[in-house]
Amino acid sequence: MRYATLAIVILAGTTVGCKRPSNEFSSPRLLATASNAKYHLTCKLYGRLFTVDSGKTDKFVQYVTIQGPDRNREIRYLPEDATSLEQSSGFFTNVWSPDGELLVLPLGRFEGFSITRSAEALQRIASGKFNDSVRVELTSGERLWHEFGKWNGPESFEFSAGLSRDQTPYAYDIPTGKVTTNEALNDNCVGVSSQGKVKIEAARGR
Predict the structure, then answer these.
(1) Contacts of 157 (CB under 8 A, 6+ apart)
(2) Which of 109, 138, 146, 172 is an S-S bond match for 84, by CB 3.0 to 4.6 Å?
(3) In what side-by-side order are the strands of the sheet with 41-51?
(4) pLDDT tens by residue, 181-200
């Protein structure tokens, strides 16, 4: 059985006990936005609210769009595996780099992340062609579960990848295409960017 299938089955079990709202099948609503003031772009997250047994209300994001400066053009983002993102809250709001020049979005829980220059975001999101992408997988080809972390600066971000709860932290430096980790290097894992396979390196100072 592929790790991807196993992880989805495990996560599906965690949804048991959720109380769905009566309007579960109504049109998704706008749940959150993330604005890019430099390029006047807005990432909009759509979905529904649901209530768990504890009474807490949470957000169920189903898809995201990028809205242009004129507010009349809104492009829906199409990841490689949208289902995995919907089922496991794979979307996040800190999509813009600190300087507003880059946009990072999830491609899927096992597909990693797309990286797009903000100046080209509308055109590239519409065509499904991004400037770059990154993920970590086993050398055998089995893909790992990805979680976005945070931006390390204008051109680098942290994420984690692994199986089940065994997640390893990584960082991706966009200009150099390097994938690094603060953990012990594992010869069984390799980075994959739009340029192909990338050897994972030890982070500086380790």
Answers:
(1) 97, 104, 148, 149, 150, 151, 171, 172, 174
(2) 109
(3) 29-36, 41-51, 57-67, 74-76
(4) 999 999 999 999 999 999 99
Query: CB of 118 within 8 A of CB of 39?
Result: yes
Look up the pTM and report it: 0.85
Question: How many other β-carbons are positioned within 10 Å of the β-carbon of residue 160?
Answer: 17
Nearest by Cα to 172 from 162, 184, 164, 180: 180
Q: What Å distances lie between residue 24 and 27, 65, 87, 170, CA to CA?
A: 8, 21, 14, 37
Quickly list DSSP for 8-77.
HHHHHHTTTT-B--TTTTSPPEEEEEEEETTTTEEEEEEEEEEE-TTS-EEEEEEEEEEE-TTSS-EEEP
To which H or E segment does residue 145 belong? strand 145-153
- One-letter identity of residue 98: P
